[in-house]
Amino acid sequence: MSYRLIQMLTVILPTILIGGFEFFRHDYLLGHLSMETGNVFITILTFVLSLLFSFWVFHIIRIKNDQLAEEQAKRAVYEERERLAHELHDGIAQSLFFLNVKLKQGDLVAASRAVSTIDHHVRQAIFNLRSTPEEDGSMNSRVAKWMSEWSSFTGIDVEIDLEIPNGIFTVKEEVQIFAIIQEAFANIRKHSMSTQAHIDFKDTQDYWQLRIWDNGCGMDLALVSDRKYGISMMKERARQVGADFQINNSELGGTEIIVTKERKK
């Protein structure tokens, strides 16, 4: 049922039912009902009809909203899978080109490194595809599970301090936040040379904040390529949830990523 039809019924049905009762009362019931009793009846009738009609209309609206939320969630997951597929394609394409060049040059050591890089790209992409947040469960449990698998996969210890309240994010926002976490930890694995990483989430009345940092080699922020390190992607995903994105050198000597969203007052 369309919203336009619901709008028309909202205007027409109460008018017909209540107006029809008034015509019927004046034409056939004036000799049997006093004006005061008729007013009581019309008040009760209006209340009952309004109550039943509101239940029906809001039930339809709730179903429509649930369907819309489900479609948005599916679209967000499909978009995330498309991004991962694109990332996998680009990474392998570059590595294959490099591999081809080194094989023609007879540089088997460099070619072996290229094969290893391709293997890492494939493993990371499969790992991320398996971990896309579309299954049931809280954001806390999904991130904790993914971090545990990531730590086993990379050999880097992870300290987790997450207390994300249920319902703080929509499903689409969860996909964006989860993708930021994946990209940040992919950078830690590929570039940081760290032995320990940290992730925490802070929620206050004024803002929420996601923070990820490591004890690695850090990076020269003036020379960092947004595209190379996926920073532009993380910035865009933060923007889509209305949050600010920052990347700094951490106190431990590595890199720190902070995603913050202030609450409107």
Q: How would you sum up this structure, described in words?
A:
The protein has two domains: about 5-65; about 135-265, Heat Shock Protein 90. Helix 2 runs parallel beside helix 5. About 65% of the residues lie in helices and about 15% in strands. It is α+β, with helices and mostly antiparallel strands and about 260 residues long.
Can you give me a brief rundown of this structure?
The protein has helices at 3-29, 35-105, 108-130, 139-154, 171-192, 231-240; strands at residues 157-161, 196-203, 207-214, 244-249, 255-262. The protein is of the alpha+beta class. It has two domains: 3-67; 136-265, Heat Shock Protein 90.
Q: How would you summarize the topology of this molecule?
A:
Layout: H1 3-29, H2 35-105, H3 108-130, H4 139-154, E1 157-161, H5 171-192, E2 196-203, E3 207-214, H6 231-240, E4 244-249, E5 255-262
Parallel strand pairs: 1-2
Antiparallel strand pairs: 2-3, 3-5, 4-5
Helix pairs in contact: 1-2, 2-3, 2-5, 4-5, 5-6
- Count of strand segments: 5
How far apart, in Å, are the first and last alpha carbons? 36 Å
CATH superfamily of the largest domain: Histidine kinase-like ATPase, C-terminal domain
Question: Roughly what is the average pLDDT, rounded to an integer?
Answer: 79
| Rg (CA only) | 29 Å
How would you describe the oligomerization state of the chains in this entry? Answer: single chain
Tags for this entry?
2 domains, alpha+beta, 6 helices, Heat Shock Protein 90
